[in-house]
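USER: My hope is that you can spare some time for a protein that puzzles me. I am handing you a single protein, as its sequence and its fold in token form. Walk me, if you will, through where the backbone shape changes along the chain. The protein I mean follows directly.
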Amino acid sequence: MPQLFFVYLGVIKNKGYMINFRNYVKDAVNTELQKLKETLTNNEIASITDAIIFDWNEIGDPDANFEELVTWSVDQYLTHA
């Protein structure tokens, strides 16, 4: 998946599709948790999602790797929870 997308008021425009960014991040977190065979509460997933959105907006680098950020954030949460 190309890393080039624009975030505007929580909505991504990627190849002509409009996607709710929060749902997109939440799905990515759930996918990572499934890979790790981990289960978290909805509140824990929401916390990770919020952290990823904050970090992604702070990075501001068009070459940043979103999947790596998700993997790192989930790992950090599981390590320090």
Observations:
- The first helix runs from residue 21 to 36.
- The mean pLDDT is 82.
- Helices lie at 21-36, 42-59, 66-80.
- DSSP finds three helices and three strands in the chain.
